[in-house]
Design goal:
The chain has helices at about 15-20, 80, 155-160; strands spanning about 25-30, 35-40, 45-50, 60-70, 70-75, 95, 110, 115-120, 125, 135-145, 145-150. By secondary structure, the chain is mostly beta strands. InterPro entries: CheW, CheW-like_dom_sf, CheW-lke_dom. It comes from Halogeometricum borinquense (strain ATCC 700274 / DSM 11551 / JCM 10706 / KCTC 4070 / PR3). This is CheW protein.
Length: about 160
Amino acid sequence: MSQEPQTAAVPNTDESDEESVREIQVLEFKLGDETYCVDIEYVSEIVDKGSLTAVPNAPDYVDGVMDLRGRTTSIVNPKALLNVDAADGESKRIVIFDSNKFEDDAAIGWLVDEVYQVVRVSMDEIEEPPLEKDDSIEGVIKRDGELVIWISPVNAVAEN
């Protein structure tokens, strides 16, 4: 009588197990009194706020355009996109996003108050967003007693 070879038990490696050990890198920045972040894969570079050229009839969330290495880049105010209280802080930096990540290959930058750091975040540190109707919020990260709101720049711009 032949016996089937016995194999050691292999732990179940479904997606939830893989996500719990998977890490992403996010760029943290300040808008008003809150800390937000975006996946670093979206970020092309960070530049100082220069002079912006106003665009007639542009949506309220577009502060203007700037010439960045020969390419006209739309500068978006994420405070207007995300309904953040704009009373606090002056926007000093621009986070330029990789145009290849946007459907129409748009050159877009977000005007932020301050850029903090790039950090690694474990997927098990991320909680579901409190509002399911808002596709721009990927999740909430609890770290060091603070909440960091993880934003999808593509969904935030697409919703408006």
